[in-house]
Amino acid sequence: MNLFGVVLTIVVLLAIAAAILLFERRRAEQIEEDLRDMSEARRRRGGSAGRGRS
Question: Helix, strand, or coil here: 47?
Fold first, then answer.
């Protein structure tokens, strides 16, 4: 493999890593938003009585 092939391979790997990190960031933000919504709904309902958690 010549220098061009090595550089191209590294660039492609970095691009794939960046895409994965961006996707996971969006997913993590969506999970946080969902958890916040669930928490607000639970507070409006009156807490988590009867679930065995404090």
Answer: coil
Please give the model's pTM, rounded to 2 decimal places: 0.55
Three-class DSSP category at 50:
coil
Q: Between the CA of residue 30 and those of 1, 12, 17, 34, 52, what are the distances in Å?
A: 42, 27, 20, 6, 27
Among 30, 31, 47, 51, smallest CA distance to 39 is for 47
pLDDT digits (tens, 9 = 90+) for 4-26: 999 999 999 999 999 999 889 98
27 near 34, Cβ under 8 Å? Answer: no
CA distance 9 to 13: 6
